[in-house]
Structures are given as C-alpha cells and as structure tokens.
Write a structure and sequence with these properties.
The chain is α/β, with parallel strands linked by helices. The protein has 17 helices and 13 strands.
Length: about 475
Amino acid sequence: MTFNDLKLSEPLLRAVQEEGYSTPTPIQARAIPPALLGRDLLGVAQTGTGKTAAFALPILQRLSQSRPASPGARRPIRALILTPTRELANQIGESFASYGRHTGLNHTVIFGGVGQSAQEKALQRGVDILVATPGRLLDLMQQGFLSYSAVEVFVLDEADRMLDMGFLPDVRRVIKALPQKRQTLFFSATMPPDIQELSQRILVQPERVEVTPVSSTAETVEQRIYHVAQALKRHLLVHLLNDAAMARTLVFTRTKHGANRVAEQLNKAGIPSAAIHGNKSQNARERALGDFKSSAIRVLVATDIAARGIDIDGLSHVVNFELPNVPEQYVHRIGRTGRAGARGIALSFCDGDERAYLKDIERTIRRSVPVVDDHPFRPGAPLPASVRAAEETVVRRAQPPTQQGRGSRPGPQQAQRPGGGSRRQRGGRGGAGRSPSASSGAPMRADVPRASSPPEGGNGAARPAAAGGVPRSRSQRTYSKW
C-alpha cells in the first residue's frame, strides 16, 4: 500500500512526497480511511508508529474541503489537539505545518512555561487548528481568549500519559466544554481502567485500531545490556561515545540532577552535550533540542519527560544510563530510535541494584536482552590505566588538609572535627584515639562516601575493608565523586 491508495487529496499527497514518505505505517494505513469517513477512532499505539500523521492528514483533508462560508471573518478553532507535553505539542505543530503547507490552513501551538501574550494574539487573529497542553488551554479558556463552539474534530493524544501526569481532571473539563457533535480521535499506548472508562464515555461507535502493544519493542532496534558498577558508568559512556558511529545519541537518566551531572561530565570529556528535563526553562529546552537536531551537540541527556515527547530523525542510539524502574518506560525510551523503518541501537547499563529492574523489563518484553561481556568496565576486569589515574586524582582531592606540624598551634578546623570533640579529647596527636585511617594517611570513611552498591566483585565494588577499616586500595573508594 502507498499513500496514493488512501484517497488523500492532491495537496496532501504532494506534501507527504516532499517529506520523503511513500508507504504508510500500519497505524496510518488502518486509521486514515475511517478517519476520512468521519468516524470516531480509538488508536492503541506506542510512540514511533507514525500516529501523528494518522490524525493530522485526515484533519487537514476534512478542514480544507469544508472552509467556513465567510473567508474574511476571523477563523474559529475547528480542530483541537490536546497533548500532555510542550515538546510533543511543538512536534505535532511541526507536522501540521509540513503536511498542510499546500492547504492554506493555519495552526498555532500553546503551552505553559512561557509568556502567553503571543499566544493570545495568535488566537485573536484566528486559527483553524489548535495544538495545546491542558493547563495553558484552560487558563486561556477561563480568560475568554478562545471558544470551542466551532470545533469539528477533537484529538486526545497520549491519553495514558495524561493520566500519569495528573492531567485527567483538566482533560475532563476541556471535553465538557466541547460541542457534543464532533469527531473524536483518541490515542493511547496503554489502556488502564481510567483511560478505558474515558474512551467509552467520549467515543461514539469508534473504529478500534491497535498496533504494536506497549509490551513489545520494535524489531528495528538492536538491544544490548552492559553489566557495570554504577561508579564506572560515566567511563563506559565516554568509552562508547568515542565511536564516531554514535553520531546522535539520546541518554536517559532517572533524575534531573543525574541528567545535569552526566551532561556536565560529557562536556568535560570533550563530547558536546546538553541536558533536558522539567526544571529547564522552555527556552533552554528548545535550544537544547535545536542544537541536537542541527548536530551542534552529539548527545542529549534526558529524563523520562522526553521519552515520549521527542521525535528526531536520524537518532542512531539510545543509552539507558540508568534503567527505568517502570518496565514499560524502557519500551518508550528505546522507541526513540529505530523509527519509520530505520535501524537503531539501544544500549543499557545495569549495576547490581538494577538487576531486579532488568528482570522486570525482560519479563515485560518477553525476551532476554543480549549481554555484552567484553567491555573494559565489566565486573572483575582491571581498570584501564587512564581511568585508574583519573580516579586517584579524585581521591587526592577528597582527602582532608594535611595535618600541621607537631609544633604548630591547631587552628579552628583542627581543634574540632566532624567526629565530635577536639583532637586532645580523643587521644591527642599520637595517642590511641587516632583512627586507623588517619594514621595511614588515607581519608576517613566519612570523607569519601561509597558508591551505591555496585555488583560484588566488579570494578568499584564495595569490597570488605582491610584490618582496621582501611579500604584495600584508593581506586576502590573513589567513585562517589561521580
């Protein structure tokens, strides 16, 4: 099947061809025909399946064939697309701009986190298609800047994500304000009970289209797992990124702080990178995405806010720097690559504390992820000399200041230590009160906290201390600085 077989209008076919597409994806082939007939649609499809075009093309065709009677009047909103994140809203807006370039229809995108003045002006000028996130849409609705009275088509995209982010009450308020007579297109990667109930309430005899359930991963994505101590993950990541084939890589962490830290370390290693997460301003997020798309940076480090909101052509690799604790999120993360028939590679780092997450993921996707056994940071392998030297430097920097000579008068920092009491109270310079760490010249345990439970026997593992509580070597207790 080709797009020519879907009975799309000539302006839309021309735009699709200009975008380089000739064959529709399964969700497009199954969803576009009933949507063109005006039927309600329930699409169960994960990201990366091409569902944006599955609803954008029918909307553009419907609106272009039934223009309002008075062309000189202000354009009312005739199609509303509700989506959970700013990034996804922007990408949907870009799709409408690309596919609708020859139709004469216009659109605007509104979301929170930025000033609303420009959005107010766009609505006052009139728009055919509005793409919005729930919070800002309700704000503008309550302020009287928009009306839903002319809405012909309503799209609820990523419905399960709306539920996860707590937007369902806002979504219900928007739906309540819409005209009863409309076409509704409903898309969700999963169908939990609340989403199932919502779909049954707002859809009228829908056509159900289900492709690639969330528990399955795309066959176009090659998956690999690296067992590595948490403290050595950054070294492994830099090692892998030295391969020029990793030209455009998306790295996932579990926390915002972790994303910032990974991006900072990669930049220090000479690998242009940026972090993107919910604490970044909208301008910073758009700048990072723009730099990534233009190849000004090679690596984008993201939290799961980006897992289902970033659509970037030519994304060669996804790296799970930390495994997600929700197995379905793994599917969404690696679905950023291997899209539209292209090949992609997903690499995952797993330390001792994450092995339970890996088991959950493999149970969910119903397959084992192949393990890479020959990387230089695998458990039990000797550390490369360059890494060993770098970690020794970290240890030296973490050590407390050198003690002053016997004849010196102790300063304030020497007189009172974190352990409580002065040096004299705890036995003096040479008495029994000195800790074994202090007598050996090595930092005390409190000065160098341990990494979070790497695998036993692996590099950086929390091995038993030698007699007196002193760790066996400096290189084995340096990794907390990462």
